[in-house]
Amino acid sequence: VDESTPPQTLNVRSIEGIASYIKEGRAKKIVLMTGAGLSTAAGIPDFRSPDTGIYANLARLDLPYPEAVFDISYFRSNPLPFYTLAHELYPGQYKPTLSHYFLRLLSDKGLLLKLFTQNIDCLERAAGVPGDKIIEAHGSFARQRCIDCRTEYPDDLMKQAIQDREVPHCMRTECRGLVKPDIVFFGEALPEEFHHNCGLPGHADLAIIMGTSLSVRPFANLPGYCAQGVPRLLINSERVGGLGSRADDVLLLGDCDDGVRKLASALGWLPELEAIFKAH
Ligand code: CNA
Description:
Layout: H1 15-23, E1 30-34, H2 72-77, H3 80-89, H4 98-108, E2 112-117, H5 123-127, E3 134-136, E4 139-146, H6 155-163, E5 179-183, H7 192-197, E6 206-210, E7 232-236, E8 249-253, H8 256-267, H9 270-278
Parallel strand pairs: 1-2, 1-6, 2-3, 6-7, 7-8
Antiparallel strand pairs: 4-5
The structure holds carba-nicotinamide-adenine-dinucleotide (CNA).
């Protein structure tokens, strides 16, 4: 479908079209899908951006291949690169971006059906999106456990280990397995709650996809579950995941915060958004 194909649902296929669709009250069950690009403005590098992405900067960790840092079998043999990176990514040192507060605003206005995030930085929660609205598809740093006997490991000891760049081991002396945060590594299953909720995009009346390369499955399949005729808005620095292929897809290519500013402005919400952002 090229850009000139007339939309089925939107009045016009543009950011203004999306804004009037929301203002007319036709979007009451919005599904959000987010990734690392949402948090780069907070100072957290993403995976795949050339030069600034984590993969481009892993040389110093001496990995056989970049993804090894998040690979469960590599972790078993050498957990140190992950703990080096965890030291940099650990939540608490970063603040939510304007885009995170926009997600919160959608939730405050009662328009959010569910937020699916691939991020492990917990910034959606920090911005005030309620926990029961968030599906952390790739887990988070909120809890940690032994990879062998699954025994949970205390938060305070974990925090200390990450600060000291040390690899924590299971508290059970008969086990002493490696401890890992509940972040989903390559080779591991996604959390149950992802599988329970992954049909929700099929019930949404609008999808907004932000800051993701949509290159990790099954997360990358989510936009495809939206019904035909349901508008899908992509706010990202590049076109990804075949978005733009349906007549009601709108692409806002560029920086997330800039895109969000444009959308909030078209909605008449910009002063409110900036006020929440500045208050934190
Ligand atoms: P990715 O593959 O690195 O893709 C990021 C996407 O965002 C790319 O398409 C970029 O072009 C785009 N992008 C980067 N910065 C901006 C910006 N400011 N404005 C607009 N677009 C931007 O990351 P994905 O999330 O798609 O990959 C999935 C992985 C990354 C998940 O498993 C995450 O756990 C993992 N990750 C998370 C974090 C975090 O929690 N903040 C950081 C790094 C990696």
